[in-house]
Amino acid sequence: MLLRYTLQNLLRHAWRTLATVFGIAIGIAAVLATVTVGDNINANLARVFGTAAGRAELILAPGAGERAVLEARRAEAVARATPGVVATLATLEYYAVLRDEAERYQRPVVPGVQGGFLLSGQDTSRPQDLPVRLASGRFPRAGSNGIAVSQAFASREGLSEGSRLRLVGPLGELSFTVTGTLAADAGLANLNAGQVGVVNLSDLQKATFLEGRVSYLGLILARGSDAERVRADLERHLPAEFSVLYPAGRGQVSNGLVQTVQSGLQVLAATLMALAGFLAYNTFAAAVVERQREFALLRTLGFTRAQVLRMGYLEAATVSALGIVVGIGLGAGLSAAITFVNALLLEFPFVTLTLPWDKLLLAAAVGTVTALVAASGPARAASRVAPVVAAREAYVAGTRTPYLLGLLLLIAGLAAALWRPPREYALPVASIAMALVFVGIALVAPALIPATGRVLGRPLRALLGLPGRLGIDFASRSRGRNGVAVGAVALGLGLIVGVGGMVSGINDSLRRWVDTTIVGDMFVAAAAPFPADFKARLSRTFPELSEVSAVSVRVARFRPPGGRARNASVILTDPERYDPRRGSGQLQFLPGQGSLEATSDAFYRGRGVYVSGTIADRYGTYRGSTLELRTSRGWLPFRVLGVVVDYTSAGESVIGNLGDLELFGGGRPELYVLSVRPGVEAQAVGARLKRVFPELFLDVQYNRPYKDLILNVTGQFFGTTHALLAVAVFVAALGVANTLGMNLAERMHEMAVLRALGLTRGGLTRAIIAEGVLVTVLGTVLGLLAGAALGQTITAAANSLTGYRVAPSYPPGLFLTALLASPLIGVLAALLPARRASRLQPARALRASEEA
């Protein structure tokens, strides 16, 4: 009987039911999207690199330096001696640039990421083992100097079988004949945004003077073998020149960027968990308040307290179940959209959507628990009050206890927001703090509505006339329910200010890092390799240059004290660049963690490094400690000279002396930083550089455009937060509209009397709009104050997750946007309820109120 009555009630109040379901669904969708987007990005990257490795479950790679190569026979011997390995797949990778595009070539901004066209040398005599599939033609045979290119690349360049493909690489010009095309949905063809070609392994080895060398060796394991056990066995006995990793580990720099995005989204997920709970509280609690008179009538008809209580819980469970179904669908779509955007930024194909069961259960639990909690308070109160008293006090907006409770919750939430918990507790504390702050606002807000009405009374009367005064009276008499709407607005705008403050703080920190670290007038890269004497030739030929510094970036393994080996970007530079007496380079040292004056001499000597604050915080490698790096001579200790701010590769980076380059695979620098003397125009020097070194196909970036490019690239990774914040504001408006709609249902008799006394439809519309504006303005003021605390909380949590030193920043435009949006949200939220009320005939309203 209770279930049938619950379903009938939900169908009778279809608009309210839909609003409640949608509110819960939006919260669940936001939580599900944010907690699964990192899984989806990593799953797609793992799929790309996994399929690019073919049947290989593990990769035997160089021990230090991503550009180093392996001696194929020695690598084969190591692999064959490992239990569980039954076969190997040798690959040689080589990056080049299209000859026709060499003069326009621009090196990627992200350090450590290769650019151009990827040549993949494979044993084409074993097509069944290749990590690619032909779409047309054939694979190139040994000695044919042929190439099979991806379908996408062939279509873009107008290539067909027999076409010549001319490239410029670090060792000079290369020329191949197209023998076929690669299917776009398989393996290697998905790498490097489709700019991929398969060449016979022996042909590529000859063309690059790397006979007997490979970039990595794929390990095919026996059926039933445990890949992690094989990896651990290899890691324990592996010679120093090798490392072993999973195929997805090849995307080290990309994974670093994903880690940054995922850390930010984890913080936002905690924020939106609080949003999901509060939205459920908002919509369902308001609905239960509306039905207090109905509960009183049921008690009069013989319902027991327990039955009334169970009915409230049953309705909450039904609505939350519907919200879970809708929310999971919305969450899957939102997660797919966010992953798709990041796939475009990171240039990998979006081919799979992952929704882990634990994340689905987490999102569903948020909706279910919060709906039941929201229903428990009003339902229990209604079940405990005598029927006559309940009927008489159906419109009473609460007692002093919720106000005092709200104040206590608000104080507790602010205290938690100011607390700096250990890293492992950062997210739970942030979520609890936000929940306490916004629930406290919802409970305190009713006490503030009359005072807000007095402040806004004159301007609203001036704008709307007598209906403005009626709207203020409406808001005051329904302040218990309007307090929930105030809380919804405060939450939505608080998220704008809080998350916006975090993003602004990160952008400010990035800008300071770029302005401090990216010092120099020109940044010069090349499609072809720099000659060994390039620096000396620059000094002789260009006397207008005041400084020439070489930079090389490698990816190497590092082993923190007592921890497991990981990858880090090793940025190797001339020590003269950071010489405080004559160099122009600068570093941002953390307080008490070194200075250039105190560490320059040790940096000159080599085997000393500056580590990022992220590495220092995560692994305890502060100034004076030792960090082990895997080099071509095995694991070697490097002294930590200082801790600096650095955002390269998600902050896991090390700055070392270029003199140690041979320890990390050798080779030549990939970048030169040039400074010109006072009065010299950098653009003129850059143009002359290109004329003097035409064979290098130089890419010259100038200071300001180069900095802007870096900031634009990094700023794009926070674009997904804006869509989620827009959802939060929309739901805040939905909460206001839902509350106003319930107020109208309660006031049918009063509206009928007002209409009978001569209040026009337009006047009634303006009165309801005035109520919406009052609720929204109060919510905005509280939201701005709470948003500042929220910004501190989520920024501290983000710092704990990433190891960065970021302080929230609140540009005036952020507050101005929130203030201007406030009345607009109120008006838009009130339009639908106001229109509905204005069309209701007085006689019909009286009948409806009598039936209620």
TrEMBL record:
Subcellular location: Cell membrane
Keywords: Cell membrane, Membrane, Transmembrane, Transmembrane helix
Limits of the MacB-like periplasmic core domain: 17-236, 485-691
Transmembrane feature ranges: 267-289, 313-340, 360-381, 402-419, 425-449, 484-506, 723-745, 766-790, 810-832
Record has Cell membrane as a keyword: yes
One cellular-component annotation, GO: plasma membrane
Record's protein name: Putative ABC transport system permease protein
Organism encoding this protein: Deinobacterium chartae
Classification lineage: Bacteria, Thermotogati, Deinococcota, Deinococci, Deinococcales
